[in-house]
Amino acid sequence: MRFPKIKRWLLFLLWSWAWFLLIVLLIYPISYGIFRLITVLLCLYLWLGALFLFWNKNSIRYLCFLLALIVSGIIILPGYQVDGSILRQKYVQELSYYEGSLYVWGGENKFGIDCSGLVRRGLINANLKMGLLSFNSKLLREAFLLWWYDASAEALGKEYRNWTKFLYKAPSINELDNSKIQTGDIAVTTDGLHILAYIGNNVWIEADPNYQKVIKVKVPDASNIWFRVPVNILEWRQFETG
């Protein structure tokens, strides 16, 4: 039995549509587990498609092999620890990038983001950019895992996957002792409904469902409900290294 050959133009059309779908998934703010799986599979399909469709073009063929080598290096090479204080600073910079972004429940990018998406995306971006600039495979793997394993505010407050470390409980953010907190620390309400990040100078950043956007708030602030409820203070364990 002979199977019909798929015409080259049809393969190219399917490959082009895969690019379109990947871009849509990257832009769409809400990222379910199935979306992340499809994103990874699309990247693999696009790599295989480029290799097959443009095998005769040396530059593209070599580029495909180079990408495969880079990904293999990220997976295999151990990488190295970085100064936690430097990562803290980068984290705060990345958080500030999202100021003014629209609040979208389940959102994880500039087009829409929620409270847990904000604190995770800041660290994803910090790991990704520092990893690329320093060729540090460990940071790149951390960025991928933070993206792959979604985590709610409640989960992060319970030290999900050992990413966070509980420091202490406070009656409210307004009543915090500022001498005990560092930039990059996070606060999770004890009911697990909301999470915020401290960026220094008595200022916190949050994706606030009441204001429907990412805002910076200077404490004390009696008008913001999240600053008047009990919170658990945690830090990212990555910030311990150095």
UniProtKB/TrEMBL annotation:
It holds the Pfam family NLPC_P60. The chain crosses the membrane at residues 9-28, 34-55, 62-80. Keywords: Hydrolase, Membrane, Protease, Thiol protease, Transmembrane, Transmembrane helix. InterPro entries: NLP_P60_dom (IPR000064), Papain-like_cys_pep_sf (IPR038765). Gene3D superfamilies: endopeptidase domain like (from Nostoc punctiforme). The keyword Oxidoreductase does not apply. One of its GO terms (molecular function) is cysteine-type peptidase activity. GO terms for biological process: proteolysis. Residues 85-237 form the NlpC/P60 domain. Belongs to the peptidase C40 family. This is C40 family peptidase. It comes from Aerosakkonema funiforme FACHB-1375.
